[in-house]
Design a protein that fits this description.
Elements lengths: L6 H15 L8 H9 L4 E4 L8 H9 L3 E5 L3 H13 L4 E4 L5 H12 L5 E4 L7 H9 L2 E6 L21 H5 L5 E5 L4 H10 L6 E4 L7 E7 L3 H12 L4 E5 L3 H13 L4 E4 L5 H13 L4 E4 L12 E6 L6 H8 L9 E7 L1 H12 L5 H19 L4 H8 L14 H4 L3 E4 L1 H18 L5 H9 L4 H6 L15 H13 L4 E3 L4 E3 L4 H6 L5 E4 L26 H19 L3 H4 L2 H10 L4 H4 L7 H19 L1
Parallel strand pairs: 1-6, 1-7, 2-4, 2-5, 3-4, 5-6, 8-13, 9-11, 9-12, 10-11, 12-13
Antiparallel strand pairs: 14-17, 15-16
Protein name: DNA helicase RecQ
EC number: 5.6.2.4
Catalytic activity: Couples ATP hydrolysis with the unwinding of duplex DNA by translocating in the 3'-5' direction
Protein backbone atom coordinates (compact mmCIF):
# COMPACT_ATOMS: atom_id res chain seq x y z
CA UNK A 1 0.00 0.00 0.00
CA UNK A 2 1.47 3.34 -1.04
CA UNK A 3 1.98 5.86 1.71
CA UNK A 4 0.16 9.19 1.29
CA UNK A 5 2.14 11.96 -0.35
CA UNK A 6 2.89 14.66 2.18
CA UNK A 7 2.46 18.31 1.13
CA UNK A 8 6.22 18.98 1.15
CA UNK A 9 6.76 16.21 -1.40
CA UNK A 10 4.06 17.69 -3.64
CA UNK A 11 5.65 21.11 -3.46
CA UNK A 12 9.05 19.50 -4.11
CA UNK A 13 7.70 18.00 -7.33
CA UNK A 14 6.38 21.35 -8.55
CA UNK A 15 9.60 23.08 -7.53
CA UNK A 16 11.64 20.51 -9.52
CA UNK A 17 9.35 20.96 -12.53
CA UNK A 18 9.89 24.72 -12.48
CA UNK A 19 13.54 24.93 -11.46
CA UNK A 20 14.93 22.04 -13.51
CA UNK A 21 12.63 21.77 -16.52
CA UNK A 22 11.32 25.33 -16.72
CA UNK A 23 7.57 24.61 -16.69
CA UNK A 24 5.24 26.26 -14.19
CA UNK A 25 2.45 23.65 -14.14
CA UNK A 26 1.81 19.98 -14.80
CA UNK A 27 -0.21 18.74 -17.78
CA UNK A 28 -3.11 16.33 -17.72
CA UNK A 29 -2.61 13.49 -15.22
CA UNK A 30 1.14 14.13 -14.75
CA UNK A 31 0.82 15.47 -11.20
CA UNK A 32 -1.46 12.63 -10.09
CA UNK A 33 0.97 10.02 -11.48
CA UNK A 34 4.00 11.75 -9.96
CA UNK A 35 2.37 12.09 -6.54
CA UNK A 36 1.38 8.41 -6.60
CA UNK A 37 4.92 7.30 -7.48
CA UNK A 38 6.57 9.60 -4.93
CA UNK A 39 4.33 8.00 -2.33
CA UNK A 40 5.68 4.55 -3.22
CA UNK A 41 2.82 3.31 -5.42
CA UNK A 42 3.13 1.27 -8.62
CA UNK A 43 1.67 2.68 -11.84
CA UNK A 44 0.83 1.64 -15.38
CA UNK A 45 0.68 4.73 -17.58
CA UNK A 46 -0.82 5.00 -21.06
CA UNK A 47 -0.10 8.45 -22.44
CA UNK A 48 0.24 9.56 -26.08
CA UNK A 49 3.61 10.45 -27.54
CA UNK A 50 4.37 14.05 -26.67
CA UNK A 51 2.17 13.89 -23.58
CA UNK A 52 5.08 14.18 -21.14
CA UNK A 53 5.56 10.55 -20.05
CA UNK A 54 9.24 11.00 -19.16
CA UNK A 55 8.54 13.62 -16.48
CA UNK A 56 6.28 11.08 -14.75
CA UNK A 57 9.36 9.13 -13.60
CA UNK A 58 12.10 11.76 -13.88
CA UNK A 59 10.60 14.07 -11.28
CA UNK A 60 9.88 11.31 -8.70
CA UNK A 61 13.47 10.09 -9.20
CA UNK A 62 14.69 13.59 -8.32
CA UNK A 63 12.39 13.91 -5.29
CA UNK A 64 12.83 10.42 -3.77
CA UNK A 65 16.06 9.24 -2.16
CA UNK A 66 18.28 7.09 -4.37
CA UNK A 67 18.66 6.60 -8.12
CA UNK A 68 15.83 6.10 -10.61
CA UNK A 69 16.56 3.09 -12.85
CA UNK A 70 15.00 3.35 -16.32
CA UNK A 71 14.62 0.21 -18.44
CA UNK A 72 14.65 1.20 -22.11
CA UNK A 73 15.15 -0.87 -25.30
CA UNK A 74 16.61 2.11 -27.10
CA UNK A 75 20.37 1.57 -26.85
CA UNK A 76 21.09 3.80 -29.85
CA UNK A 77 19.22 6.69 -28.20
CA UNK A 78 20.43 6.42 -24.60
CA UNK A 79 23.24 8.90 -25.18
CA UNK A 80 20.78 11.48 -26.49
CA UNK A 81 18.39 10.87 -23.58
CA UNK A 82 21.21 11.32 -21.09
CA UNK A 83 22.49 14.42 -22.93
CA UNK A 84 19.03 15.98 -22.70
CA UNK A 85 18.89 15.38 -18.94
CA UNK A 86 22.42 16.63 -18.35
CA UNK A 87 21.51 19.78 -20.30
CA UNK A 88 19.00 20.68 -17.57
CA UNK A 89 21.38 19.79 -14.74
CA UNK A 90 20.20 16.24 -13.98
CA UNK A 91 22.92 13.70 -13.12
CA UNK A 92 22.16 10.93 -15.60
CA UNK A 93 24.10 7.97 -16.97
CA UNK A 94 23.58 4.74 -18.88
CA UNK A 95 25.00 1.24 -19.13
CA UNK A 96 24.87 -0.60 -22.44
CA UNK A 97 26.97 -2.55 -24.94
CA UNK A 98 28.28 0.56 -26.71
CA UNK A 99 30.58 1.44 -23.77
CA UNK A 100 34.08 0.21 -23.02
CA UNK A 101 34.99 -1.21 -19.60
CA UNK A 102 36.34 2.13 -18.32
CA UNK A 103 33.14 3.99 -19.19
CA UNK A 104 30.98 1.31 -17.59
CA UNK A 105 33.10 1.28 -14.42
CA UNK A 106 32.83 5.06 -14.16
CA UNK A 107 29.01 4.94 -14.34
CA UNK A 108 28.82 2.00 -11.91
CA UNK A 109 30.93 3.87 -9.35
CA UNK A 110 28.73 6.97 -9.67
CA UNK A 111 25.64 4.80 -9.12
CA UNK A 112 26.99 3.08 -6.01
CA UNK A 113 28.18 6.37 -4.53
CA UNK A 114 24.78 8.00 -5.10
CA UNK A 115 26.15 10.51 -7.61
CA UNK A 116 23.46 9.77 -10.20
CA UNK A 117 19.81 10.80 -10.30
CA UNK A 118 18.85 8.49 -13.19
CA UNK A 119 20.46 5.38 -14.66
CA UNK A 120 19.34 3.99 -18.04
CA UNK A 121 19.65 0.25 -18.72
CA UNK A 122 18.75 -1.97 -21.66
CA UNK A 123 16.44 -4.85 -20.60
CA UNK A 124 18.94 -7.55 -21.59
CA UNK A 125 21.42 -6.23 -19.00
CA UNK A 126 19.07 -7.32 -16.23
CA UNK A 127 19.76 -10.95 -17.21
CA UNK A 128 23.35 -10.45 -16.06
CA UNK A 129 24.10 -11.33 -12.41
CA UNK A 130 26.66 -8.50 -12.38
CA UNK A 131 23.90 -5.95 -13.09
CA UNK A 132 21.64 -7.30 -10.37
CA UNK A 133 24.51 -7.25 -7.86
CA UNK A 134 25.30 -3.68 -8.88
CA UNK A 135 21.72 -2.59 -8.19
CA UNK A 136 21.91 -4.31 -4.80
CA UNK A 137 24.94 -2.17 -3.88
CA UNK A 138 23.21 1.15 -4.55
CA UNK A 139 19.93 2.71 -3.48
CA UNK A 140 17.19 2.47 -6.11
CA UNK A 141 14.43 5.07 -5.80
CA UNK A 142 12.16 3.59 -8.50
CA UNK A 143 12.08 1.39 -11.59
CA UNK A 144 10.67 2.91 -14.78
CA UNK A 145 9.88 0.49 -17.62
CA UNK A 146 9.64 2.55 -20.79
CA UNK A 147 7.99 1.34 -24.02
CA UNK A 148 6.14 -1.23 -21.91
CA UNK A 149 4.05 -2.45 -24.87
CA UNK A 150 7.18 -4.40 -25.87
CA UNK A 151 6.12 -7.03 -23.31
CA UNK A 152 2.90 -7.83 -25.20
CA UNK A 153 3.41 -10.86 -27.45
CA UNK A 154 0.49 -9.89 -29.67
CA UNK A 155 1.67 -6.27 -29.81
CA UNK A 156 3.44 -4.59 -32.69
CA UNK A 157 6.92 -4.40 -31.17
CA UNK A 158 7.43 -7.48 -28.97
CA UNK A 159 10.82 -7.82 -27.21
CA UNK A 160 11.40 -11.14 -25.40
CA UNK A 161 13.79 -9.53 -22.88
CA UNK A 162 10.83 -7.63 -21.45
CA UNK A 163 9.29 -10.88 -20.22
CA UNK A 164 12.05 -11.09 -17.58
CA UNK A 165 11.24 -7.73 -15.98
CA UNK A 166 8.86 -9.22 -13.42
CA UNK A 167 12.09 -10.17 -11.57
CA UNK A 168 12.39 -6.52 -10.48
CA UNK A 169 9.35 -6.83 -8.23
CA UNK A 170 10.44 -10.19 -6.88
CA UNK A 171 13.91 -8.96 -5.91
CA UNK A 172 12.99 -5.40 -4.81
CA UNK A 173 9.36 -5.64 -3.68
CA UNK A 174 9.44 -2.28 -1.86
CA UNK A 175 10.75 -0.20 -4.78
CA UNK A 176 7.90 1.45 -6.73
CA UNK A 177 7.60 0.68 -10.42
CA UNK A 178 6.08 2.60 -13.29
CA UNK A 179 5.48 1.08 -16.73
CA UNK A 180 4.82 3.50 -19.59
CA UNK A 181 3.61 3.19 -23.18
CA UNK A 182 2.18 5.51 -25.79
CA UNK A 183 -0.21 2.94 -27.26
CA UNK A 184 -2.14 -0.08 -26.05
CA UNK A 185 -5.62 -1.49 -26.42
CA UNK A 186 -7.40 -2.79 -23.29
CA UNK A 187 -6.19 -6.31 -24.08
CA UNK A 188 -2.57 -5.17 -24.44
CA UNK A 189 -2.80 -3.16 -21.22
CA UNK A 190 -4.00 -6.21 -19.30
CA UNK A 191 -1.19 -8.30 -20.78
CA UNK A 192 1.38 -5.68 -19.69
CA UNK A 193 -0.06 -5.65 -16.16
CA UNK A 194 0.00 -9.46 -15.92
CA UNK A 195 3.47 -10.04 -17.35
CA UNK A 196 5.11 -7.27 -15.31
CA UNK A 197 3.21 -8.22 -12.12
CA UNK A 198 1.52 -4.84 -12.09
CA UNK A 199 -1.99 -6.21 -11.60
CA UNK A 200 -2.35 -4.28 -8.33
CA UNK A 201 -0.81 -1.13 -9.81
CA UNK A 202 -2.92 1.94 -10.41
CA UNK A 203 -3.70 2.47 -14.08
CA UNK A 204 -3.55 5.96 -15.59
CA UNK A 205 -5.04 6.18 -19.08
CA UNK A 206 -4.80 9.57 -20.76
CA UNK A 207 -6.67 10.67 -23.86
CA UNK A 208 -5.18 9.20 -27.02
CA UNK A 209 -6.16 12.29 -28.97
CA UNK A 210 -3.39 14.31 -30.64
CA UNK A 211 -5.45 17.30 -31.81
CA UNK A 212 -2.47 19.03 -33.45
CA UNK A 213 -2.00 16.12 -35.91
CA UNK A 214 -4.06 16.25 -39.09
CA UNK A 215 -4.82 12.69 -40.26
CA UNK A 216 -5.16 12.23 -44.02
CA UNK A 217 -5.39 9.10 -46.16
CA UNK A 218 -5.15 9.52 -49.93
CA UNK A 219 -5.75 7.15 -52.84
CA UNK A 220 -2.39 5.87 -54.06
CA UNK A 221 -1.63 6.88 -57.66
CA UNK A 222 2.04 7.80 -58.04
CA UNK A 223 3.06 7.72 -54.39
CA UNK A 224 6.54 9.23 -54.74
CA UNK A 225 5.15 12.08 -56.84
CA UNK A 226 2.30 12.56 -54.36
CA UNK A 227 4.88 12.71 -51.57
CA UNK A 228 6.92 15.29 -53.45
CA UNK A 229 3.85 17.48 -53.95
CA UNK A 230 2.99 17.23 -50.24
CA UNK A 231 6.49 18.24 -49.19
CA UNK A 232 6.80 21.11 -51.65
CA UNK A 233 3.34 22.55 -51.03
CA UNK A 234 3.01 22.09 -47.27
CA UNK A 235 6.29 21.07 -45.63
CA UNK A 236 9.13 22.87 -47.38
CA UNK A 237 12.17 22.80 -45.09
CA UNK A 238 10.44 20.70 -42.40
CA UNK A 239 11.80 17.61 -40.68
CA UNK A 240 9.76 14.47 -41.16
CA UNK A 241 9.64 10.67 -41.39
CA UNK A 242 8.56 8.66 -44.44
CA UNK A 243 7.75 4.98 -43.78
CA UNK A 244 8.02 2.33 -46.51
CA UNK A 245 7.34 -1.40 -46.29
CA UNK A 246 10.54 -2.70 -47.91
CA UNK A 247 14.24 -1.85 -47.78
CA UNK A 248 14.33 -1.41 -51.56
CA UNK A 249 11.46 1.08 -51.41
CA UNK A 250 13.28 3.00 -48.66
CA UNK A 251 16.39 3.35 -50.81
CA UNK A 252 14.49 4.32 -53.96
CA UNK A 253 12.35 6.90 -52.14
CA UNK A 254 15.32 8.49 -50.38
CA UNK A 255 17.21 8.70 -53.68
CA UNK A 256 14.13 10.19 -55.39
CA UNK A 257 13.82 12.95 -52.79
CA UNK A 258 17.52 13.81 -52.96
CA UNK A 259 17.35 13.93 -56.78
CA UNK A 260 14.52 16.45 -56.40
CA UNK A 261 16.46 18.71 -54.06
CA UNK A 262 15.03 17.50 -50.75
CA UNK A 263 17.53 16.31 -48.11
CA UNK A 264 16.70 12.73 -47.13
CA UNK A 265 18.45 9.76 -45.52
CA UNK A 266 17.61 6.01 -45.57
CA UNK A 267 17.23 3.80 -42.49
CA UNK A 268 16.55 0.06 -42.50
CA UNK A 269 17.91 -3.14 -40.98
CA UNK A 270 19.91 -3.95 -44.11
CA UNK A 271 22.27 -1.03 -43.52
CA UNK A 272 25.31 -1.62 -41.32
CA UNK A 273 24.99 -0.42 -37.73
CA UNK A 274 27.45 2.43 -38.24
CA UNK A 275 25.46 3.88 -41.15
CA UNK A 276 22.19 3.56 -39.24
CA UNK A 277 23.68 5.29 -36.20
CA UNK A 278 25.16 8.08 -38.34
CA UNK A 279 21.88 8.69 -40.20
CA UNK A 280 19.88 8.66 -36.99
CA UNK A 281 22.30 11.08 -35.38
CA UNK A 282 22.07 13.47 -38.34
CA UNK A 283 18.27 13.33 -38.29
CA UNK A 284 18.21 14.23 -34.59
CA UNK A 285 20.84 16.97 -34.83
CA UNK A 286 20.08 18.72 -38.11
CA UNK A 287 17.05 20.83 -39.01
CA UNK A 288 14.91 20.01 -42.05
CA UNK A 289 16.12 16.45 -42.70
CA UNK A 290 13.75 13.68 -43.80
CA UNK A 291 14.29 10.09 -42.68
CA UNK A 292 12.96 7.47 -45.10
CA UNK A 293 12.69 4.24 -43.14
CA UNK A 294 11.11 0.92 -42.43
CA UNK A 295 9.37 0.58 -39.06
CA UNK A 296 12.77 -0.40 -37.62
CA UNK A 297 13.17 3.36 -37.07
CA UNK A 298 11.40 5.64 -34.65
CA UNK A 299 10.73 4.16 -31.23
CA UNK A 300 11.91 6.59 -28.57
CA UNK A 301 12.79 9.32 -31.07
CA UNK A 302 12.43 12.45 -28.95
CA UNK A 303 12.74 15.00 -31.77
CA UNK A 304 9.90 17.41 -31.02
CA UNK A 305 9.80 19.26 -34.36
CA UNK A 306 8.93 16.36 -36.68
CA UNK A 307 6.29 18.14 -38.73
CA UNK A 308 5.00 15.18 -40.73
CA UNK A 309 4.91 11.38 -40.79
CA UNK A 310 4.13 9.78 -44.14
CA UNK A 311 3.25 6.15 -44.86
CA UNK A 312 3.79 5.15 -48.48
CA UNK A 313 2.55 1.62 -47.70
CA UNK A 314 -0.32 0.38 -45.57
CA UNK A 315 0.65 -0.26 -41.91
CA UNK A 316 -0.14 -3.72 -40.56
CA UNK A 317 -2.16 -2.51 -37.57
CA UNK A 318 -3.87 0.54 -36.08
CA UNK A 319 -1.55 0.32 -33.07
CA UNK A 320 1.52 0.50 -35.29
CA UNK A 321 -0.01 3.34 -37.32
CA UNK A 322 -0.85 5.33 -34.19
CA UNK A 323 2.59 4.77 -32.67
CA UNK A 324 4.33 5.85 -35.89
CA UNK A 325 2.15 8.89 -36.62
CA UNK A 326 2.57 9.92 -32.98
CA UNK A 327 6.20 10.83 -33.72
CA UNK A 328 4.91 13.96 -35.45
CA UNK A 329 4.28 17.16 -33.54
CA UNK A 330 5.57 16.24 -30.11
CA UNK A 331 5.91 19.98 -29.47
CA UNK A 332 2.17 20.49 -29.93
CA UNK A 333 2.51 22.50 -33.14
CA UNK A 334 0.47 21.69 -36.30
CA UNK A 335 1.66 18.48 -37.95
CA UNK A 336 0.52 16.06 -40.65
CA UNK A 337 0.00 12.28 -40.72
CA UNK A 338 -0.42 11.33 -44.39
CA UNK A 339 -0.95 7.83 -45.79
CA UNK A 340 -1.09 6.73 -49.41
CA UNK A 341 -3.34 3.68 -49.71
CA UNK A 342 -4.35 1.59 -52.69
CA UNK A 343 -5.58 -1.73 -53.98
CA UNK A 344 -2.13 -3.31 -54.14
CA UNK A 345 -1.62 -2.59 -50.43
CA UNK A 346 -4.64 -4.71 -49.54
CA UNK A 347 -3.62 -7.52 -51.90
CA UNK A 348 -0.07 -7.51 -50.53
CA UNK A 349 -1.07 -7.49 -46.87
CA UNK A 350 -3.65 -10.26 -47.32
CA UNK A 351 -1.07 -12.37 -49.16
CA UNK A 352 1.55 -11.76 -46.46
CA UNK A 353 -0.89 -12.99 -43.81
CA UNK A 354 -1.81 -16.10 -45.78
CA UNK A 355 1.85 -17.04 -46.28
CA UNK A 356 3.14 -16.01 -42.84
CA UNK A 357 4.74 -18.48 -40.48
CA UNK A 358 2.74 -19.39 -37.41
CA UNK A 359 -0.46 -21.22 -36.61
CA UNK A 360 -4.03 -20.36 -37.57
CA UNK A 361 -4.55 -18.35 -34.38
CA UNK A 362 -1.57 -16.18 -35.26
CA UNK A 363 -2.85 -15.56 -38.78
CA UNK A 364 -6.32 -14.78 -37.45
CA UNK A 365 -4.82 -12.19 -35.11
CA UNK A 366 -2.91 -10.61 -37.99
CA UNK A 367 -6.14 -10.55 -39.97
CA UNK A 368 -7.98 -8.79 -37.14
CA UNK A 369 -5.25 -6.13 -36.98
CA UNK A 370 -5.41 -5.62 -40.75
CA UNK A 371 -9.23 -5.45 -40.80
CA UNK A 372 -9.15 -2.66 -38.22
CA UNK A 373 -6.57 -0.76 -40.28
CA UNK A 374 -8.65 -1.18 -43.44
CA UNK A 375 -11.75 0.02 -41.62
CA UNK A 376 -9.86 3.18 -40.64
CA UNK A 377 -8.82 3.73 -44.27
CA UNK A 378 -12.31 3.18 -45.71
CA UNK A 379 -14.40 5.01 -43.11
CA UNK A 380 -16.70 7.83 -44.19
CA UNK A 381 -16.95 9.05 -40.60
CA UNK A 382 -14.46 11.21 -38.68
CA UNK A 383 -11.13 9.42 -38.97
CA UNK A 384 -9.88 10.68 -35.60
CA UNK A 385 -13.06 9.43 -33.91
CA UNK A 386 -12.57 5.95 -35.35
CA UNK A 387 -8.92 5.95 -34.28
CA UNK A 388 -9.82 6.91 -30.70
CA UNK A 389 -12.65 4.37 -30.58
CA UNK A 390 -10.17 1.61 -31.47
CA UNK A 391 -8.31 2.35 -28.24
CA UNK A 392 -11.52 2.31 -26.23
CA UNK A 393 -11.84 6.07 -25.89
CA UNK A 394 -15.51 7.06 -26.16
CA UNK A 395 -16.37 9.69 -28.75
CA UNK A 396 -19.69 11.41 -29.36
CA UNK A 397 -21.43 9.84 -32.32
CA UNK A 398 -21.35 12.11 -35.31
CA UNK A 399 -18.99 14.60 -33.68
CA UNK A 400 -16.48 15.88 -36.20
CA UNK A 401 -12.93 16.71 -35.11
CA UNK A 402 -12.44 19.28 -37.87
CA UNK A 403 -8.80 18.26 -38.42
CA UNK A 404 -8.86 15.09 -40.51
CA UNK A 405 -9.56 14.60 -44.20
CA UNK A 406 -13.00 13.07 -43.72
CA UNK A 407 -14.05 16.15 -41.74
CA UNK A 408 -12.36 18.73 -43.96
CA UNK A 409 -13.54 17.17 -47.26
CA UNK A 410 -16.29 14.69 -46.35
CA UNK A 411 -16.49 11.66 -48.65
CA UNK A 412 -19.80 10.29 -49.88
CA UNK A 413 -20.99 6.74 -49.56
CA UNK A 414 -22.98 5.07 -52.30
CA UNK A 415 -24.94 1.90 -52.86
CA UNK A 416 -22.36 -0.30 -54.56
CA UNK A 417 -24.42 -3.49 -54.45
CA UNK A 418 -24.89 -3.79 -58.24
CA UNK A 419 -21.23 -2.95 -58.91
CA UNK A 420 -20.15 -5.54 -56.33
CA UNK A 421 -22.43 -8.16 -57.90
CA UNK A 422 -20.97 -7.51 -61.35
CA UNK A 423 -17.40 -7.81 -60.12
CA UNK A 424 -18.03 -10.89 -57.99
CA UNK A 425 -19.94 -12.45 -60.91
CA UNK A 426 -16.92 -11.96 -63.17
CA UNK A 427 -14.68 -13.74 -60.65
CA UNK A 428 -17.30 -16.48 -60.22
CA UNK A 429 -17.78 -17.09 -63.96
CA UNK A 430 -14.05 -17.21 -64.69
CA UNK A 431 -13.64 -19.86 -62.02
CA UNK A 432 -16.81 -21.86 -62.72
CA UNK A 433 -16.93 -21.68 -66.52
CA UNK A 434 -13.22 -21.52 -67.39
CA UNK A 435 -11.42 -22.85 -64.30
CA UNK A 436 -9.39 -19.62 -64.28
CA UNK A 437 -8.30 -17.07 -61.69
CA UNK A 438 -6.94 -13.62 -62.48
CA UNK A 439 -5.89 -10.46 -60.71
CA UNK A 440 -7.79 -7.20 -60.45
CA UNK A 441 -6.45 -5.72 -63.72
CA UNK A 442 -7.90 -8.47 -65.92
CA UNK A 443 -11.25 -8.46 -64.09
CA UNK A 444 -11.57 -4.69 -64.58
CA UNK A 445 -10.64 -4.96 -68.28
CA UNK A 446 -13.41 -7.57 -68.73
CA UNK A 447 -16.01 -5.37 -67.02
CA UNK A 448 -14.97 -2.34 -69.10
CA UNK A 449 -15.10 -4.38 -72.32
CA UNK A 450 -11.46 -3.80 -73.28
CA UNK A 451 -10.30 -6.03 -76.12
CA UNK A 452 -6.72 -6.42 -74.98
CA UNK A 453 -4.39 -9.15 -76.21
CA UNK A 454 -4.89 -10.99 -72.93
CA UNK A 455 -8.69 -10.75 -73.19
CA UNK A 456 -8.62 -12.11 -76.76
CA UNK A 457 -6.08 -14.82 -75.87
CA UNK A 458 -8.36 -16.27 -73.20
CA UNK A 459 -11.64 -15.58 -75.00
CA UNK A 460 -12.89 -13.39 -72.20
CA UNK A 461 -14.79 -11.19 -74.67
CA UNK A 462 -17.36 -14.00 -74.91
CA UNK A 463 -18.19 -13.90 -71.19
CA UNK A 464 -21.68 -12.62 -70.34
CA UNK A 465 -20.13 -10.03 -68.00
CA UNK A 466 -17.86 -8.61 -70.74
CA UNK A 467 -18.45 -4.86 -71.10
CA UNK A 468 -21.15 -4.80 -68.42
CA UNK A 469 -19.32 -2.30 -66.20
CA UNK A 470 -18.86 0.78 -68.39
CA UNK A 471 -20.75 2.98 -65.89
CA UNK A 472 -17.54 3.17 -63.82
CA UNK A 473 -14.02 4.18 -64.82
CA UNK A 474 -10.92 2.03 -64.39
CA UNK A 475 -9.83 3.71 -61.13
CA UNK A 476 -13.37 3.51 -59.77
CA UNK A 477 -13.49 -0.24 -60.41
CA UNK A 478 -10.14 -0.62 -58.65
CA UNK A 479 -11.68 1.23 -55.72
CA UNK A 480 -14.54 -1.27 -55.71
CA UNK A 481 -12.06 -4.18 -55.68
CA UNK A 482 -10.08 -2.54 -52.85
CA UNK A 483 -13.17 -2.00 -50.72
CA UNK A 484 -14.56 -5.50 -51.33
CA UNK A 485 -11.21 -6.90 -50.21
CA UNK A 486 -11.32 -4.64 -47.16
CA UNK A 487 -14.82 -5.91 -46.31
CA UNK A 488 -13.74 -9.51 -46.95
CA UNK A 489 -16.40 -9.88 -49.64
CA UNK A 490 -13.53 -10.77 -51.94
CA UNK A 491 -10.32 -12.69 -51.28
CA UNK A 492 -6.83 -12.89 -52.72
CA UNK A 493 -4.49 -15.84 -53.03
CA UNK A 494 -1.18 -16.89 -54.49
CA UNK A 495 1.97 -14.97 -55.35
CA UNK A 496 0.24 -13.19 -58.23
CA UNK A 497 -2.63 -11.78 -56.16
CA UNK A 498 -5.44 -13.58 -58.00
CA UNK A 499 -8.96 -12.74 -56.85
CA UNK A 500 -11.20 -15.42 -55.33
CA UNK A 501 -14.62 -15.51 -53.72
CA UNK A 502 -15.02 -15.74 -49.95
CA UNK A 503 -17.74 -17.33 -47.83
CA UNK A 504 -19.39 -13.90 -47.62
CA UNK A 505 -19.41 -13.36 -51.41
CA UNK A 506 -22.54 -15.50 -51.84
CA UNK A 507 -24.49 -13.12 -49.58
CA UNK A 508 -23.97 -10.38 -52.16
CA UNK A 509 -24.40 -12.58 -55.25
CA UNK A 510 -27.40 -14.63 -54.15
CA UNK A 511 -28.92 -13.12 -50.99
CA UNK A 512 -29.17 -9.42 -51.95
CA UNK A 513 -26.85 -8.21 -49.22
CA UNK A 514 -26.42 -4.46 -49.63
CA UNK A 515 -22.88 -3.17 -50.11
CA UNK A 516 -22.10 0.43 -49.16
CA UNK A 517 -18.94 1.84 -50.72
CA UNK A 518 -16.95 5.02 -50.22
CA UNK A 519 -16.72 7.58 -53.02
CA UNK A 520 -13.84 10.01 -52.77
CA UNK A 521 -14.89 13.61 -53.43
CA UNK A 522 -13.36 15.38 -56.40
CA UNK A 523 -10.36 17.24 -55.08
CA UNK A 524 -10.06 20.87 -56.20
CA UNK A 525 -7.01 21.41 -58.40
CA UNK A 526 -4.10 22.97 -56.54
CA UNK A 527 -3.01 26.40 -57.55
CA UNK A 528 0.15 26.39 -59.60
CA UNK A 529 3.19 26.37 -57.36
CA UNK A 530 5.27 29.53 -57.45
CA UNK A 531 8.95 29.81 -56.70
CA UNK A 532 8.11 31.24 -53.29
CA UNK A 533 8.66 28.54 -50.64
CA UNK A 534 5.70 27.56 -48.49
CA UNK A 535 5.58 28.69 -44.91
CA UNK A 536 6.91 26.15 -42.42
CA UNK A 537 4.30 24.92 -39.97
CA UNK A 538 6.66 25.95 -37.18
CA UNK A 539 6.09 29.60 -38.16
CA UNK A 540 2.32 29.36 -38.56
CA UNK A 541 0.47 31.81 -36.28
CA UNK A 542 3.59 33.89 -35.65
CA UNK A 543 3.15 37.58 -36.35
CA UNK A 544 5.19 39.14 -39.17
CA UNK A 545 7.27 40.84 -36.47
CA UNK A 546 7.95 37.64 -34.54
CA UNK A 547 8.76 35.39 -37.51
CA UNK A 548 12.24 36.80 -38.31
CA UNK A 549 13.07 36.77 -34.58
CA UNK A 550 12.10 33.09 -34.40
CA UNK A 551 14.23 32.27 -37.45
CA UNK A 552 17.23 34.12 -35.97
CA UNK A 553 16.82 32.20 -32.70
CA UNK A 554 16.68 28.91 -34.62
CA UNK A 555 19.87 29.87 -36.45
CA UNK A 556 21.59 30.63 -33.13
CA UNK A 557 20.34 27.32 -31.69
CA UNK A 558 21.65 25.41 -34.71
CA UNK A 559 25.11 26.90 -34.33
CA UNK A 560 25.16 26.22 -30.59
CA UNK A 561 24.02 22.63 -31.13
CA UNK A 562 26.79 21.98 -33.65
CA UNK A 563 29.44 23.41 -31.33
CA UNK A 564 28.25 21.22 -28.44
CA UNK A 565 27.55 18.12 -30.55
CA UNK A 566 23.94 18.02 -29.35
CA UNK A 567 20.56 17.75 -31.08
CA UNK A 568 19.07 21.24 -31.46
CA UNK A 569 15.97 20.35 -29.43
CA UNK A 570 18.14 19.49 -26.40
CA UNK A 571 19.04 23.18 -26.21
CA UNK A 572 15.47 24.50 -26.69
CA UNK A 573 12.29 23.28 -28.35
CA UNK A 574 10.73 25.30 -31.16
CA UNK A 575 7.79 26.08 -28.86
CA UNK A 576 10.17 27.80 -26.40
CA UNK A 577 11.84 29.80 -29.17
CA UNK A 578 8.43 30.84 -30.48
CA UNK A 579 7.45 32.19 -27.07
CA UNK A 580 10.77 34.05 -26.78
CA UNK A 581 10.22 35.53 -30.26
CA UNK A 582 6.75 36.75 -29.32
CA UNK A 583 7.55 38.10 -25.85
CA UNK A 584 11.07 39.47 -26.59
CA UNK A 585 12.33 39.32 -22.95
CA UNK A 586 14.94 41.99 -22.14
CA UNK A 587 16.43 40.52 -18.95
CA UNK A 588 17.41 37.17 -17.49
CA UNK A 589 14.53 37.46 -15.02
CA UNK A 590 12.01 37.88 -17.84
CA UNK A 591 13.65 35.10 -19.87
CA UNK A 592 13.40 32.79 -16.86
CA UNK A 593 9.58 33.03 -17.00
CA UNK A 594 9.46 31.48 -20.51
CA UNK A 595 8.13 27.91 -20.57
CA UNK A 596 11.01 25.47 -21.08
CA UNK A 597 13.73 27.76 -19.68
CA UNK A 598 14.88 26.13 -16.45
CA UNK A 599 17.62 27.18 -14.06
CA UNK A 600 20.44 25.33 -15.84
CA UNK A 601 19.53 26.48 -19.36
CA UNK A 602 19.06 30.05 -18.20
CA UNK A 603 22.60 30.02 -16.79
CA UNK A 604 24.08 28.38 -19.94
CA UNK A 605 22.27 30.22 -22.69
CA UNK A 606 20.49 33.22 -21.19
CA UNK A 607 23.08 35.87 -22.05
CA UNK A 608 23.48 34.51 -25.60
CA UNK A 609 19.74 34.73 -26.24
CA UNK A 610 19.56 38.27 -24.91
CA UNK A 611 22.43 39.19 -27.24
CA UNK A 612 20.54 37.74 -30.23
CA UNK A 613 17.44 39.73 -29.29
CA UNK A 614 19.43 42.91 -28.68
CA UNK A 615 21.11 42.52 -32.07
CA UNK A 616 17.72 42.43 -33.77
CA UNK A 617 16.70 45.63 -32.00
CA UNK A 618 19.72 47.58 -33.21
Amino acid sequence: MASPVVPSEVSNALEVLTRVFGYDSFRGSQQEIIDHLIGGGDALVLMPTGGGKSLCYQIPALVRDGVGVVISPLIALMQDQVDALQAVGVRAGFLNSTQDSYQRREVETAFVEGKLDLLYLAPERLKLDATMRLLDRGEVSLFAIDEAHCVAQWGHDFRPDYLELSALHERWPDVPRIALTATATDATRQEIATRLQLVEARHFVSSFDRPNIQYRIASKKEPKRQLLELLRSEHAGDAGIVYCLSRASVEKTADFLVENGIPALPYHAGLDSRTRARNQSRFLREDGLIMVATIAFGMGIDKPDVRFVVHLDLPKSVEGYYQETGRAGRDGLPSTAWLAYGLQDVVQQRRMIDTSEGDDAYRRRLGIHLDAMLALCETVECRRGQLLAYFGQPVDAGQACGNCDTCLTPPESWDGTVAAQKLLSAVYRLRRERGQKFGAGQIVDILLGKTTDKVRQHGHDSLTVFGKGTELKDLEWRGVVRQLLAQQLLGVEGDYGTLVLTDASSQVLFESRQVRLRREPERPARAARTSKPSKSKATIDLTPEATPVFEELRSWRGNAARELGLPAYVIFHDATLRQIAVERPSSLTELGTISGVGESKLAKYGEQILEVLAGLSD
